[in-house]
Amino acid sequence: MNQERLLQVLLAPQISEKATYVAEKRNQVIFRVASDATKPEIKAAVELLFKVEVDSVQVSNVKGKVKRFRGATGRRKGWKKAFVGLKAGQEINFVEGGNA
Questions:
Q1: pLDDT in 10s for each residue of the chain, 100 residues
Q2: Residue 56 is inside which H or E element, if any?
Q3: Structural domain spans, the chain
Q4: Which end of the chain is less congested by CB atoms within 10 angstroms, N or C?
Q5: Residue of 30, 22, 16 whose CA lies nearest to 83
Q6: Top-level CATH class of 3-87?
Q7: CA dist 65 → 35, 37, 78 (Å)
Q8: Can you give the pLDDT at residue 12?
Q9: Chain-centre distance of CA 52, in angstroms?
Q10: pTM of the model
Q11: Is the dihedral of CA 21, 22, 28, 31 positive or negative?
Q12: Counting runs of H as helices and runs of E as strands, what totals does the chain give?
């Protein structure tokens, strides 16, 4: 896989209550990824950027919310979320900006 493409696959970590619960219980990290990203690309990108071993990748498409503004209805863009399972003993620490 092209290294330039792998650097564009991961957009941001998804930080929420559910994300921290999943991180503690299942040793998974949640990322917002590019809409056309595949599971092998996501796995390779996480291993390249964070120097960890990935066990599994689960992907879900999140539909954009319907919002109203001044009486007109519109829709936010949909996006893709990836649940990346790490092997035992592996950890990603976003507070320090790298691997812990």
A1: 788 888 999 999 998 999 889 888 999 999 999 999 999 999 999 999 999 999 999 999 999 999 999 999 999 999 999 999 999 888 787 666 555 4
A2: strand 54-62
A3: 3-87
A4: C
A5: 30
A6: alpha beta
A7: 16, 22, 8
A8: 93
A9: 15
A10: 0.84
A11: negative
A12: 3, 8
Q: How far is CA 32 from CA 24, 26, 66, 88, 91, in A?
A: 19, 18, 20, 23, 18
CA-CA distance, 75 to 62, in Å (whole number)? Answer: 13
Round to whole Å and give the CA distance between 43 and 53: 9
| Distance separating alpha carbons of residues 74 and 48, to the nearest angstrom | 38
Tokens of 37: 């990203």
Which amino acid type is present at position 55?
A: D
CB 42 within 8 A of CB 63: no
* Angstrom distance (rounded) from CA 85 to CA 11: 17
Identify the H or E element spanning 89.
none
Which backbone phi and psi does 22 adopt, to 5 degrees? -65, -40
Closest CA to 3 of 47, 39, 35, 36: 47
